[in-house]
Amino acid sequence: MPFVNIRIYSGHPQDRKRRIASRITDVIAEETKLPKEAVWIVIEEIEPKDWFVGGRGGDEKK
């Protein structure tokens, strides 16, 4: 069973996260020939201050 873990900045609306999960589920189910119910997706929201790229926090990039 495919398991997808998505990490995004916090603050995205629930409907956007549902659309993301739905579209990813569709692609994985289609490509693996598995039922959609076999695809698990978790979306973790991370505060920008806790997300670092190149040593700088996401809140520093604004």
Q: Helix proportion of residues, in percent? A: 25-40%
Provide the spatial order of strands within the biggest beta sheet. 1-2
Q: Count the strands?
A: 4
What is the correct CATH architecture?
2-Layer Sandwich
Question: Which secondary-structure class do the elements indicate?
Answer: alpha+beta
Mean pLDDT rating: 94
Largest sheet descriptor: 2 strands, parallel
Please tell me what the overall shape is.
elongated
The CATH topology corresponds to Macrophage Migration Inhibitory Factor
Residue ranges: pLDDT <50 for 5 or more in a row?
none
Calculate Rg over CA atoms: 14 Å
Count of DSSP-assigned helices: 1
CATH superfamily: Macrophage Migration Inhibitory Factor
Beta fraction of the residues?
25-35%
Kindly, what is the distance between the CA atoms of the first and last residues, rounded to a whole number of angstroms? 39 Å
The domain tally reads: 1
CATH class: Alpha Beta
Order of helices and strands: EHEEE
Describe this structure in words.
The chain has 1 helix and 4 strands; from the N terminus they run βαβββ. It is α+β, with helices and mostly antiparallel strands and about 60 residues long. Strands 1-2 form a two-stranded parallel sheet. The protein has a two-stranded antiparallel ribbon with strand order 3-4. Helix 1 links the parallel strand 1 and strand 2. The protein is elongated and about 40 Å long. The N and C termini lie far apart (about 40 Å).
